[in-house]
Every structure is written in C-alpha cells, then in structure tokens.
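queue> pop job 88
queue> type: inverse folding (structure -> sequence)
queue> payload:
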C-alpha cells in the first residue's frame, strides 16, 4: 500500500487502489472546528484493502467562539468606556482587542463556507470522472451540503454517517447555534433545503445514541426521496457516534451498498 501526499495549497492523503473502481473521498468530522484526517484512517485502509482509491483531505477548520454575542457586546462597550476614560493609548489597545474579537468571530462563522470551497478545489485538482463522497458527523453535513448545492456530475454516490441535515431538531444545541450563526454567510446552510438539485445515489447511516440526528436523517431522507433521489437509510445497532468510523459494522453496511449500486 502506497501513501501519496500532494500539497497544492492543501494536503491530501491518497491511498492508491483499483483504478476501475470510483475513488472514495472521506471527509472527517469534528464539529466544523476540530478533527483530523487521522480519524478516517481505519475506514480509508478498509476501502483501500478491498480495491478502492481513497482520498482523505484536510479542510479549513472554523473555531468555536469563546463568548456569546451578548457577552461580546458588553465587552465592546466596556472597552469603549475604557478608551474614553484613559485616552489615546487605551483607545489603541481597545481597537486591537475589538479587531481580535471580530477576526475570531469571523473565522468561527466561516467554518461552513471555507470547507465547501476546499472540497470544490479538491475535486477540481483530482479531476476524477466519478467519485463517492463520504462524510462523518460535521463531515457528513459538509458532504451532503456540497452534494446538494453542487452541479458537478462526477459525484455519483454520497454516504453520510450521523450528520446534521436540518434545523428542525438541533437549534437548542451548541452545534445548532454554530450553524445558525452562519446564516449571514449562507442562506439555509442545511442540505434539507437544497435537495432539488442534481440527482444522486445516497446512503444515510445513523448510529445508536444519535437520537436527535436520527430525526435529521429521517427528514433528509424524506426530502431526498420526494425530490427524486435514490436514497437508502441504515441504522447501526452496536456502534455509537464516535466508534462508528472504525467499526466493522459500518464498513460492512457501506461496502454492501457500494457493491449493490456499482452493479
């Protein structure tokens, strides 16, 4: 097994397999702001062993904002008062602090936009005729969102494992608020609202203990089905959200579905 590293601005790990099978691109999770390509290595090795070329890209991560919007506003007001009272030097310090807060918040918000651009750049760089896009958790959201928004015809299959697909059930969570914060950068950053695009083959996989995400999967599957996509849903009984990306149970479900759709 050979490992190839390319670095055209970003680094991609490519495990070479059988050129007759469509390559698989694995997008890792990590709540859009953390996570590593290493998370997907067990899955990459599995698919490489059964003949697939596998690509595991690094994408641009966002960062969780350390303070809520209200706290940030109060801090800005305090800095302004501080600058007014202590003069020019304090004003400079306050401006630097305000700029740092703004940049951090902007980076946090772009945790959806930049990864989508990275995926697009990766597909342009690789120039494969047909690919299977696979994502886990936040990576499943990114894979699904890109596949529903993109007009590319080389994304033939999409496998999403325990992803966030709608805003119906998760807005009370930190991750839901993260996505809501991106609304000013992208209208409806959920694949549920974009299923009217190019038709693809979908496998949606959910794990035990992912109760909220199971409802997301059901809603997304219904929307895909109503829009004319070929979609199948599978639930894993033994794996949880974190163990599923290295579990034989997951690999078997995915490989069985791939074998069926490749015939």
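queue> result:
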């Amino acid at each position: 097994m050979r490992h190839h590293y390319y670095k055209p601005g970003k680094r991609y790990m490519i495990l070479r397999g059988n050129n007759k099978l469509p390559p698989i691109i694995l997008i890792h999770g990590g709540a859009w702001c953390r996570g590593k390509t290493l998370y997907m290595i067990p899955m990459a090795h599995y698919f490489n062993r059964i003949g697939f070329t596998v690509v595991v890209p690094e994408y641009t991560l966002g960062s969780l904002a350390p303070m809520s919007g209200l706290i940030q506003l109060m801090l800005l007001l305090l800095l302004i008062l501080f600058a007014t009272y202590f003069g020019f030097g304090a004003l400079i310090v306050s401006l630097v602090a305000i700029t740092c807060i703004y940049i951090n918040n902007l980076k946090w918000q772009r945790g959806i936009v930049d990864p989508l651009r990275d995926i697009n750049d990766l597909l342009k760089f690789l120039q494969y005729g047909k690919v299977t896009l696979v994502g886990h958790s936040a990576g499943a959201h990114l894979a699904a969102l890109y596949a529903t928004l993109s007009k590319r015809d080389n994304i033939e299959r999409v496998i999403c494992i325990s992803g966030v697909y709608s805003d119906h059930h998760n807005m009370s969570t930190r991750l839901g608020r993260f996505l809501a914060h991106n609304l000013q950068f992208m209208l409806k950053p959920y694949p549920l609202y974009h299923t009217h695009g190019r038709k693809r083959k979908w496998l949606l996989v959910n794990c035990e203990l992912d109760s909220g995400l199971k409802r997301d999967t059901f809603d997304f599957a219904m929307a895909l089905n109503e829009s004319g996509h070929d979609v199948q849903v599978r639930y894993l009984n033994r794996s949880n959200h974190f163990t599923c990306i290295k579990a034989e149970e997951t690999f078997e479900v995915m490989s069985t579905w791939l074998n069926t759709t490749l015939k």
